[in-house]
Design brief:
This protein has about 210 residues and is of the alpha/beta class. It contains 6 helices and 7 strands, in the order βαβααβαβββαβα. The chain binds flavin mononucleotide. Flavin mononucleotide binds next to loops.
């Protein structure tokens, strides 16, 4: 059974400003893969804890991967490893990913587990899989109206590529703080963007099926 993992970076989780677009995306994926199982990983404050001193020490000391200090890491990595498609729904917070999503990255990018460090750079151990990143932002950081830096997109792409996950598409819902009309037209544009990306996902799914 194909599995989709939805990582919710917003503190608002299911109530986030991009929730309807994420729901639309999940519904489209259901249409492509009717038997899909959808797993939700919420990263709001009560759901995720920042890496502890014990965790940081264990990473630096290269503690065994089955050490109890890596329990949360293993859970999050397991969810990522077992998904066929990853959706990350995240707001932009101060030009980059919110702290909770950064904590998820700190747990998932684990040396000698999800990547190897070599003299020529880090090499991911996970298989590639399609990723949709739905980014909500109060203002504009892409296109003609951009007036702030985007340290989110390249950073998130680089972090995922480090573990081997490379097929990443971004859907931007910008101007969410510019009133109801702006927010609803951002949602309409986001849905259009997803509709344009689904045929490629279908092709990829056909390729995966025929290569089994
Ligand atoms: C702590 C914080 C920092 C933010 N930083 C930015 C920012 O750098 N750029 C921006 O355009 N919007 C910023 N925003 C606005 C959010 O990105 C915007 O409200 C978004 O729609 C929230 O989406 P959500 O409902 O998915 O959490 C920030 C909001 C918060 C709470």
């Amino acid at each position: 059974m194909p599995r989709v993992l939805v990582v919710h970076g917003s503190p608002h989780a299911y109530e986030s400003s991009g929730a309807s677009v994420v729901e639309f995306l999940v519904a489209q994926i259901h249409a492509v893969w009717p038997t899909v199982e959808v797993v939700h990983r919420l990263l709001s404050a009560s759901e995720i804890i920042l890496p502890s001193a014990a965790y940081a020490t264990a990473v630096l000391d290269r503690a065994a991967n089955d050490s109890s200090v890596f329990e949360l890491s293993e859970t999050l990595i397991g969810e990522l490893e077992s998904c066929d498609l990853l959706i990350i729904a995240t707001p932009m917070h101060n030009f980059t990913v919110p702290a909770a999503l950064k904590a998820w990255i700190d747990y998932v990018l684990l040396i000698n587990r999800t990547f190897d460090a070599t003299p020529t750079g880090k090499i991911g151990r996970l298989n590639d899989r399609p990723v949709f990143v739905v980014v909500t932002s109060g203002g504009f950081h892409q296109g003609e109206r951009a007036n702030q830096a985007d340290f989110l997109s390249d950073y998130l792409r680089y972090a995922l590529q480090t573990v081997g996950v490379k097929s990443i598409k971004f859907v931007y819902l910008q101007g969410m703080a510019y009133g109801e009309n702006a927010a609803s037209s951002a949602i309409t544009e986001g849905i259009k963007c997803i509709q344009s990306l689904i045929p490629e996902l279908l092709k990829q799914q056909e390729r995966d099926c025929t290569s089994v």
